[in-house]
Amino acid sequence: MSYLFLGAGIASTLLLIISLIFENSFHWLCKNPRTCFFCPTVVFTMIMVFGYSGAIMVFVSNYSSFKILLLSLGLSAVSSVITNIALWKFRKIEDETLIERDLISSQGVVTTPIPAGGYGEVEVDVAGSTFSVTASSNDSLGEGEGIVVEAIT
Q1: Side-chain half-sphere exposure of 42, counting CA atoms within 13 A
Q2: What is d(CA 20, CA 9) in angstroms, rounded to the nearest whole number?
Q3: First-to-last CA distance in the chain?
Q4: CA angle, 32 as apex, 28 and 36 as ends, to 5°?
């Protein structure tokens, strides 16, 4: 029985590593991993916790095989909830990350003068936050002048 648990733990660990390194290797398990409760990361984590917890209980406890099986299944269910909560938090952070298209058309103010064809610094307001970024312009811009982001290079 311990070899079955240990085999499940080792196999799912390898599959989890593969799925994390090669993101799309198990995309067929879930059409949209961002909203799927049983995405590959969660499934492999559940099997891994099931396997290793079962193997540990076989070696250190006197529980019956049925009791070990039930406890391992319970622990794997708890791990799936915890993993989904963690993934939800990471996805939320990822959704809030600014990308280039968020900056286009945003307004700001020149903080370090920009000579014609040269570089300076501007503060840009995006999504309620202010960012200081290096900027260039074909025209000379003085400190305090308003700007609109036209392109990112």
Answers
A1: 21
A2: 16
A3: 60
A4: 100
What own/partner pairs with CB < 8 Å and gap ≥ 24 does 57-62 have? 58/1, 58/2, 58/5, 59/2
Q: Residue 47 has what pLDDT?
A: 94
Cβ 75 vs Cβ 113: under 8 Å: no
Paired tokens of 8: 């499940």
Element holding 120 (H helix, E strand) = strand 119-126
Instruction: Name the residue type at position 80.
Output: S
Q: What is the mean pLDDT of each run of 10 residues along the chain (153 residues)?
A: 91 88 71 67 90 95 94 94 81 58 80 89 79 85 86 74
